[in-house]
């Protein structure tokens, strides 16, 4: 057996015997993301479905001034209810989404063929009210257009005159791509899982060994320090890979529990997609392992290593944040940037888009190169004299 | 056979420069126990760390059975068994697994490792703890396992850095017996200590180190004669000077 294999197996064996590591790497780490996403999606979908199915109740002030309008609203599935005593404060306090006010002047204006004014009391900052507001506004507009068309016809004019442009939206999103919008979190969760999965072993096998006074005896053996480091790196990467596989499997299961069918969405996460996700993410798991082993070898103590690595966990969030603030179209060069390429490829994979082999290979190659650079740096650090000295 | 000549090592730089080892030369013969005696901070551990290839000397040569530390460090490591200053065990592995891990790193076959473990567990009385995880071991048990681990490859030369540190009387006695066995087997045993009685009782030859330099080198009788004192302790204090006050 080579030094690498001996060290690798010893680190695996030793850490499999540590309940804390096993639970955090194989249970909490991989399950946290999928359960969170599935739970969040299920909640959001149920909310959406409830809102869409429910008859919209709109408090109306002055309904008696516009019986035809009220009838039209009722036909369109909007239930007119009595308005609260203080409509403005009711809107501010989120007791109602929106209040429709029909002034006393409405009837005269309507009969006189003038622009008849109605008012909506609303709060644009209330996210949950937007759907009600949009539906009410759209219904009111439709009533207005219908009336305009009737009035033009009476005057012998084709209604098309006032609607020179007809907008027809041909929605090109597939069910998977709509699901992908909900899955925007997923790349981050996946990369976070592999970083976190590597974290404990990276610290334990380097800074931890020094702190427990076992690194000095270990390095006195007639073996090269580079192969000792690689053995530890491989053990760290092994744990990250297992974390990753469990995370994908857990996600495949939890996603089935989400009532995506209610929105006409299907998410495909079968063996093929799972394998694709693994191929995309495995190289970045190596980067995470190599980078963390390097940082752990660099730091003087277990605590210092923990500080570095807890900051490092923020790194995979960067592309997600950039894409959220400034959503840019995927460009070719992005597939040569680790993390950014993973964000794009993982999203494409879960949306059911075609992942181009060229993009995948570019991303894998560049990411593996980066991992090799970090591994080389870790090896340089392992050759420093003070690495093994505990005191 | 261990030969050290003109060894130098400094730490830090500029105003903070500390010359930890400043021209140390001595040799340790086969079939003898050689003691490195000196107060804390005299440079014993640094000297030994350079010998067992963990640190690079600034100047000087170190030879183990003809292999030079800087030219052929792997051969030196194979010919040395070392109980270093840091002697931690993997607490989630059993004593046997701890010893076997180092045996495999030495490239030994599983059968040979098992035979060595059987031999050493008898010599060091490890039978009862061999298959227990080392978490919760006493100091004495830990040192014994660390020594077995250091000697798994049956080295001709044995280096022990303050081996009796923190051990109770019983463990200390059995460790001394073990060192005498190593000597009887014809091995070269080099150990460091700051405990006078221990050195006097065990060593064929004593190398006294203070402030990074060898200040005396010879048998206990020769040191006493050199200092003109009848007890070794008085001889030691006289040789080392004021620095040694307050030490055991």
**Biggest sheet of chain B: strands side by side, in what order?**
6-7-8-3-9-10
Measured between the Cα atoms of the first and last residue of chain B, the distance is 29 Å
Count of DSSP H/I helices of chain A: 15
In the sheet with the most strands of chain A, the strands line up as: 2-1-3-4
Plain-language structure description:
- The complex is a heterodimer of chains A (391) and B (248).
- Chain A has 391 residues and is mainly α.
- Chain A has a four-stranded mixed sheet with strand order 2-1-3-4.
- In chain A, helix 8 runs antiparallel to helix 10 and helix 8 packs across helix 14.
- Chain B has 248 residues and is α/β, with parallel strands linked by helices.
- Chain B is built from nine helices and ten strands.
- A six-stranded mixed sheet of chain B has the order 6-7-8-3-9-10, sandwiched between helices. A four-stranded antiparallel sheet of chain B has the order 2-1-4-5, covered by helices on one side.
- In chain B, a hairpin with a 2-residue loop joins strand 4 and strand 5.
- The longest helix of chain B is centred in the C-terminal third of the chain and has 16 residues.
- Chain B is globular, with a radius of gyration of 18 Å.
- The C terminus of chain B is likely disordered.
- Classes of the chains: A mainly alpha (391), B alpha/beta (248).
- Chains A and B meet through helix 1 and helix 9 of A and helix 2, helix 3 and helix 5 of B.
Topology overview:
The complex is a heterodimer of chains A (391) and B (248).
Chain A: H1 3-16, H2 19-53, E1 56-61, H3 67-75, E2 78-82, H4 87-92, E3 99-101, H5 106-111, E4 119-121, H6 130-154, H7 175-182, H8 186-211, H9 215-219, H10 225-257, H11 271-298, H12 302-312, H13 317-325, H14 340-351, H15 357-382
Parallel strand pairs in A: 1-2, 1-3
Antiparallel strand pairs in A: 3-4
Helix pairs in contact in A: 1-10, 2-8, 2-10, 7-14, 8-10, 8-11, 8-12, 8-14, 10-11, 10-15, 11-12, 11-14, 11-15
Chain B: E1 2-11, E2 18-28, E3 32-37, H1 44-51, E4 59-64, E5 67-68, H2 73-79, E6 80-83, H3 95-105, H4 110-123, H5 139-150, E7 157-161, H6 169-184, E8 188-193, H7 196-202, E9 205-210, E10 213-218, H8 220-227, H9 232-240
Parallel strand pairs in B: 3-8, 3-9, 6-7, 7-8
Antiparallel strand pairs in B: 1-2, 1-4, 4-5, 9-10
Helix pairs in contact in B: 3-4, 3-5, 8-9
């Amino acid at each position: 057996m080579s030094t690498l294999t001996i060290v690798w197996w010893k680190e695996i064996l030793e850490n499999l015997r540590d309940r804390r590591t096993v639970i955090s790497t194989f249970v909490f780490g991989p399950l946290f993301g999928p359960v969170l996403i599935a739970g969040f999606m299920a909640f959001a979908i149920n909310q959406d479905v409830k809102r869409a199915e429910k008859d919209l109740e709109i408090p109306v002030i002055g309904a008696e001034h516009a019986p035809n309008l009220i009838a039209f609203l009722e036909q369109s599935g909007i239930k007119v209810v009595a308005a609260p005593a203080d409509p403005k404060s009711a809107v501010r306090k989120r007791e109602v989404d929106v209040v429709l006010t029909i002034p006393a002047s409405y009837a005269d204006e309507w009969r006189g063929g003038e622009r008849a004014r109605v008012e909506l009391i609303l709060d644009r900052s209330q996210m949950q009210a937007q759907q009600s507001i949009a539906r009410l506004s759209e219904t009111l507009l439709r009533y207005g257009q219908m009336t305009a068309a009737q009035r033009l016809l009476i005057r012998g004019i084709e209604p098309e005159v006032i609607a020179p442009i007809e907008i027809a939206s041909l929605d090109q999103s597939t069910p998977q791509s709509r699901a992908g919008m909900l899955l925007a979190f997923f790349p981050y969760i996946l990369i976070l899982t592999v970083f976190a999965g590597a974290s404990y072993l990276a610290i334990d096998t380097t800074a931890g060994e020094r702190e427990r006074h076992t690194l000095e005896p270990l390095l006195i053996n007639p073996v090269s320090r580079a192969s000792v480091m690689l053995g530890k790196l491989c053990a760290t990467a092994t744990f990250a890979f297992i974390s990753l596989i469990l995370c994908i499997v857990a996600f495949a299961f939890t996603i089935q529990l989400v009532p995506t069918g209610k929105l006409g969405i299907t998410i495909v996460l079968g063996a093929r997609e799972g394998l694709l996700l693994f191929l995309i993410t495995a190289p970045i798991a190596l980067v995470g392992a190599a980078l963390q082993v390097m940082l752990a070898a660099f730091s003087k103590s277990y605590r210092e290593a923990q500080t570095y690595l807890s900051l490092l966990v923020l790194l995979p969030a960067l592309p997600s944040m950039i894409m959220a603030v400034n959503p840019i179209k995927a460009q070719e060069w992005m597939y040569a940037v680790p993390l950014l390429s993973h964000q794009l490829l993982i999203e494409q994979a879960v949306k059911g888009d075609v992942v181009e082999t060229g993009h995948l290979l570019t991303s894998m190659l560049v990411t593996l190169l980066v991992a090799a650079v970090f591994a080389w740096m870790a090896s340089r650090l392992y050759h420093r004299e003070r690495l093994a000295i505990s005191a | 056979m261990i030969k050290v000549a003109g060894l130098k090592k400094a730490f830090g730089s500029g105003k903070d420069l500390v010359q930890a080892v400043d021209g140390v030369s001595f040799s340790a013969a086969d079939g003898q126990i050689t003691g490195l005696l000196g107060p804390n901070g005299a440079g014993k551990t640094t000297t030994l760390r350079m010998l067992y290839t963990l640190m690079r000397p600034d100047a000087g040569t170190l030879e183990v059975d003809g292999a030079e530390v800087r030219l052929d460090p792997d051969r030196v490591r194979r010919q040395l068994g070392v109980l270093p200053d840091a002697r931690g065990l993997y607490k989630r592995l059993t004593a046997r697994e701890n010893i076997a891990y180092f045996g495999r790193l030495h490239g030994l076959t599983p059968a040979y490792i098992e035979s060595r473990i059987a031999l050493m567990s008898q010599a060091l009385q490890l039978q009862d703890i061999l298959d227990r995880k080392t978490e919760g071991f006493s100091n004495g048990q830990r040192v014994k396992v660390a020594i077995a681990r250091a000697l798994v490859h049956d080295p001709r030369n044995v280096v022990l850095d303050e081996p009796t540190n923190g051990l109770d009387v019983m463990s200390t006695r059995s460790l001394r017996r073990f060192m005498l066995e190593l000597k009887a087997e014809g091995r070269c045993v080099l150990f460091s200590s700051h405990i006078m009685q221990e050195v006097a009782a065990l060593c064929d030859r004593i190398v006294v180190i203070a402030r990074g330099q060898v200040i005396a080198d010879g048998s206990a009788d020769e040191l006493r004669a050199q200092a003109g004192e009848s007890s070794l302790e008085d001889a030691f204090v006289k040789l080392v000077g004021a620095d040694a006050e307050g030490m055991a």
